[in-house]
Design goal:
The structure is a single chain. The protein is mainly alpha-helical. The protein has one domain. The chain has a two-stranded antiparallel sheet with strand order 1-2. 19% of the residues are buried.
Length: 208
């Protein structure tokens, strides 16, 4: 995806990735490392992030616990094969995906309020689409959408090739493809349905 979700919302993406990574270290999923791992921060953004297992554990113990449970579940399963050095576990697919998605949601719950001010650097239409897309993705998750590379790539074929402007709010210009227009429309419709049904989908921290 482009800057809509990974540019102006880089902070959200950071928390999603870092919680998985540091929990993998803390749970010994990556083995007993002989050294401590700490990311090097940019000082002007120091207070917006956590950079080590110790910092993230102190600041967000609930998310670290949720992420640890995902790796503990994998470690409790037998390794049935290895592909290019990567172990394949005898897991229940639905259980593994559910636990992984709970970590993803929990990280977003924490990051969204912290970086809401960053969103104001984009248009209102772009901000609305970003939130519409997140709600739509959660609906997909609710029906056991498989977040594999192939299925995710297919789902994102219609992701807009550029940032939206306020001129795109009512009428999409011709430089959007049919798939792009369809995804933008579906995301907007999904949010309207969600609001009309009492916000049945919203980002909240769940226990795995």
């Amino acid at each position: 995806m482009y800057s809509s979700l990974f540019g102006k919302n880089f902070g959200i993406s950071y928390y999603v990735v870092i919680m998985y990574f540091l929990a993998a270290i803390e749970s010994d999923f990556l083995g007993n490392l002989p050294y401590e791992v700490e990311l090097l921060p940019r000082e002007e953004y120091r207070s917006n992030f956590c950079y080590s297992v110790e910092e993230c554990r102190a600041a967000y113990p609930q998310i670290m616990d949720i992420a640890n449970r995902f790796y503990k579940y994998l470690q409790s399963r037998k390794i049935v094969s290895t592909t290019r050095g990567i172990p394949q576990y005898d897991t229940d697919e639905d259980t593994a995906i559910f636990k992984m998605w709970v970590v993803h949601q929990a990280a977003i719950d924490v990051a969204k309020p912290k970086f809401s001010d960053v969103s104001f650097y984009s248009s209102e239409t772009e901000r609305d689409f970003t939130m519409d897309f997140l709600v739509t993705a959660e609906f997909f998750e609710a029906v056991l959408y498989r977040p594999y590379f192939e299925s995710s790539a297919e789902f994102l074929v219609g992701f807009p090739h550029r940032l939206l402007t306020d001129q795109d709010r009512n009428v999409l210009t011709r430089n959007f493809s049919r798939r792009e227009k369809a995804l933008i429309t579906v995301a907007k419709l999904t949010t309207k349905i969600n609001k009309s049904t009492g916000m049945i989908m919203s980002y909240t921290i769940h226990e795995a």
